[in-house]
Structures are given as structure tokens and as C-alpha cells.
Design goal:
Elements lengths: L2 H37 L4 E7 L6 E8 L5 E9 L6 E3 L8 H6 L11 H17 L16
Antiparallel strand pairs: 1-2, 2-3, 3-4
Length: about 140
């Protein structure tokens, strides 16, 4: 076999491994989101993201009660498909208005977290203002599983 054939085979193998990793990460995200929507039947959920050119990517899932108190806050950050969500318990029980007025408290130590939280809060605000809101957890379009 010629060198270019080996290189093409290696490229195909790496691409296949990357596809598998992306599928596993998407499955993890879906499982976490389904877990949140199954556990909490009321309130609002918002997801925000930050994508830096050379910095780590960040995804935030935020669940708030109907009276806008943070119930669960999950952050996933990393450069690879091995990143997992971690829970930020220190912000659970905090009023959403406090975080909204000072989103930089979220980004201590990690750039981009404040921006992802800001986007999650914007999504929660849009869900709250949505006409004809049905009872139950709203925000992202939930799928029945």
C-alpha cells in the first residue's frame, strides 16, 4: 500500500473516532436534559453557550422555579468530547435577578461562563413571556422520550 493510502485510512479512522465521540457527548447532553425535565415539573429551563476561538467551549443548563429562584445550574466546559456537566451548588437557591444584575459572579476563574449564563437567562425570559404558556417545565422544546 502506498503512503497516501495509509494516510487516507488514518484520516478515516480519526474521523470515525471523532464522530463516535460527538455522538457520545450528544447522548450525555440529551440524558442530562431529560433527567432535568423529568425531575422538575414546573418552572423554566434555559440553555446558554459560549464558543471561544481558542478558549474552551461552555454550555450552561439552568432550571428556575416559577418564582425565579435557581433550582439547578449545570456547566459543561472543555475542548474535547470528554467534557461532562458539573453542578454549581453554590448558585442554587439564589434569585435569578441577583445573577442577572451581576453575571460576572458566575465567570470567576473561567472565561465565557458569564456569557453562557447570560444567554440561558435570556432564553428563560423569552419562555416566561411566551403567550399561552402551559403548566410544566418550559424553555427549550422538550421531546417526549
Amino acid at each position: 500500500m502506498a503512503i497516501w493510502q495509509w494516510a487516507l485510512l488514518a484520516l478515516a479512522l480519526v474521523w470515525g473516532l471523532q464522530s463516535l465521540g460527538v455522538w457520545l457527548q450528544m447522548r450525555h447532553y440529551s440524558d442530562v436534559f431529560k433527567g432535568i425535565t423529568n425531575k422538575y415539573a414546573d418552572g423554566f429551563v434555559g440553555a446558554g453557550n459560549y464558543r471561544g476561538r481558542f478558549a474552551k467551549g461552555i454550555i450552561v443548563l439552568m432550571v428556575v422555579t416559577p418564582d425565579l429562584v435557581v433550582r439547578r445550574l449545570l456547566v459543561m466546559s472543555g475542548r474535547s468530547v470528554f467534557a461532562k456537566f458539573r453542578r454549581l451548588e453554590e448558585f442554587e437557591g439564589v434569585a435569578l435577578d441577583r445573577i442577572r444584575s451581576n453575571p460576572t459572579i458566575m465567570g470567576e476563574g473561567e472565561p465565557g461562563v458569564a456569557e453562557a449564563v447570560k444567554r440561558a437567562i435570556e432564553q428563560i425570559d423569552r419562555a416566561r413571556l411566551e403567550p399561552g404558556k402551559k403548566p410544566g417545565l418550559t424553555g427549550l422544546k422538550t421531546v417526549s422520550a
